[in-house]
Amino acid sequence: MDHDVELIGRTSSHYTRVARLFAHELAVPVRLVPVFDITQIDPAVFAGNPALKVPTLRRGGSLLFGTENICRALAELSPAPPRIVWPEELRGDVSRNAQELVWHAMAAQVQWVFGTIVGKLPPDAMYFAKGRAGLEGALGWLEAHLPEALGALPAGRALSLFEVTLFCLVEHLVFRGTVPVAPYPALTRFAAEFGLRPSARATPYRFDVAPQ
């Protein structure tokens, strides 16, 4: 199969997995180009992304940065896009807060992993201690409000950005062992159910290994 769309990212990244899952759901062929060393500070390693982040979508000579931007572009490339619920369609404070807190938790987890595991900085430093507290606070709020947030999503949807990002977040917490997920049974049940989708089964987390 000819792949003229490339996703520069990491199989171990929850941001990258959101885009990969969307590509699978939308039947858009995408070739993953792994970034093996996330500590690099050369934009060329990240396909020219000046923020030194993943993922980036490359189509010919065009580059698109950011997970949500990429998901929207994939929907435009889909031969028959299904019903997708985007954040601007969310109504009510709970729905909007839920998506915001998922994004926050994803970023907070990156902060924790990159700082304390990759960078080997002290986890009790105020910056990381507050970040972890904010992560746990966001998860607690999502646990308490998940039924309402899911119930507010329009019927007849094929998927929503909220559900995909939440699933990728919860599974990534387990994958990286960042925080225990046992205190969040509603979130773990949701992830287990969403994880039965073929797109979820086709995009498991793993660490990319550079060729020797």
Features of this protein?
about 210 residues, Glutaredoxin, 7 helices, globular, alpha/beta, 4-stranded mixed sheet, Glutathione S-transferase Yfyf (Class Pi), Chain A, domain 2, two-stranded parallel sheet
How would you sum up this structure, described in words?
With 212 residues, the chain is an alpha/beta fold. It has 2 domains: 5-82, Glutaredoxin; 84-198, Glutathione S-transferase Yfyf (Class Pi), Chain A, domain 2. It has helices at 14-25, 67-77, 93-118, 126-151, 161-176, 185-194, 198-201; strands at residues 5-9, 31-34, 56-59, 62-65, 84-85, 159-160. The protein has a 4-stranded mixed β-sheet, covered by helices on one side. Helix 3 runs antiparallel to helix 4, helix 3 (93-118) runs parallel beside helix 5 (161-176) and helix 5 crosses helix 6.
